[in-house]
Design a protein that fits this description.
single chain; 64% helix; 3 strands; Alpha-lytic protease prodomain-like; 325 residues; Alpha-Beta Plaits; mainly alpha; 9 helices
Length: 325
């Protein structure tokens, strides 16, 4: 978590510097395409500041008022960032449309190209770092920042191509057309970030994460684990809250069941990089139906031989129903 905050601080400082650079480029060129890039950087600054705040808040330990921690603030951060990106895209489209009728004189395109190329490279590097780290730790705030920086870098690339054309063919309609195109792209990126944030707030299931965890557990299961079902994973920022039902032999003592639950926790923790908290309910097996899928070899209460190995899949493990019954 500390690494996430450090990276977000670097992004915040860089956002201020890149905004200044693009502001200078616009003042030199008077290009709407450059303005579209500068406006997105202005959004970057606001989003980076709120992202840093949300990461610091989500890192606080849980308390009596927030028993699941403060991680949900990251989804709010991503939602605000997406809204800002969407707003910037709309403003860019409106400004460029206006300048179709009130064109501006273009100047100093060579200096603008050099400045934008430098800012685009920095955005691309920081964006990739943030996305990789955000995916690794399942941090929506860092993912939102990274995707925003990536979109900024790609839009800068498009603006650079347009400015290179404008350098040889200084037509105002070309400048405005490029600005409108990238304004629409930026607005679409903002919508995607908002969609992801809403999904997190609504506790939408992350099927990719669930599939990975279930596959890992299935490949590392113990003989006493007769069945795993009714599995849920809820995200609270970087913390994952896992609920599931583990079916064990009906004659196990409380101590034995507790030991098996602990082993399942260890396996699940190894499948992800995030901190994880668990609520694992232990069920008793149902002979003779579940004897057919039970691989416990020294069971003195077996009523049927094992006939097949029940593979735990995403679909079957999420269902609120025991395997084999």
């Amino acid at each position: 978590m500390i690494q996430n905050i450090t990276l977000q601080r670097i992004i915040t400082v860089a956002s201020f510097i890149l905004l200044a650079g693009k502001g200078i480029a616009y003042s030199l060129t008077h290009s709407n395409a450059v303005l579209s890039d500068a406006l997105e950087s202005l959004v970057n600054v606001a989003a980076a500041l709120f992202g840093l705040f949300s990461l610091q808040l989500s890192a606080r330990p849980r308390d009596s008022n927030h028993p699941y921690g403060h991680g949900k603030i990251e989804f709010l951060s991503a939602g605000i960032e997406g809204s800002l990106i969407l707003f910037a895209g709309v403003i860019i489209v409106l400004k460029a449309t206006y300048n179709f009728f009130r064109p501006q004189h273009l100047a100093a395109l060579d200096y603008g190209i050099l400045i934008l190329a430098s800012t685009g490279l920095v955005n691309y590097i920081l964006g990739n770092l943030a996305v990789r780290r955000g995916k690794l730790t399942h941090s929506p705030a860092l993912l939102g920042s990274g995707r925003h920086l990536q979109s900024d870098a790609f839009s800068t690339l498009g603006v650079l191509i347009a400015m290179s054309l404008l350098y040889f063919f200084p037509y105002h309609w070309l400048d405005n057309s490029v600005a409108i195109l990238f304004g629409i792209i930026i607005a679409f990126m903002g919508f995607r970030v908002i969609r992801t944030a809403v999904a997190g707030i609504m506790d939408e299931a992350d099927m990719e994460l669930l599939g990975h965890m279930i596959h890992f557990v299935n490949n590392n299961r113990r003989p006493a684990w007769v069945d795993l079902h009714n599995m849920r994973v809820i995200k609270y920022g970087p913390v994952l809250h896992v609920d599931c039902h583990l079916t064990l032999p009906w004659y196990y003592s409380v101590a034995q069941a507790h030991e098996e639950v602990g082993e399942l926790r260890n396996v699940m923790e190894k499948s992800v990089k995030n901190p994880v908290e668990f609520f694992i309910h232990s069920d008793a097996c149902v002979p003779p139906d579940q004897c057919r899928i039970c691989s416990l070899g020294d069971c003195a209460h077996r009523r049927q031989p094992m006939t097949y190995r029940q593979e735990w899949t995403l679909e079957s493990t999420l269902a609120d129903r025991k395997h084999g019954t």
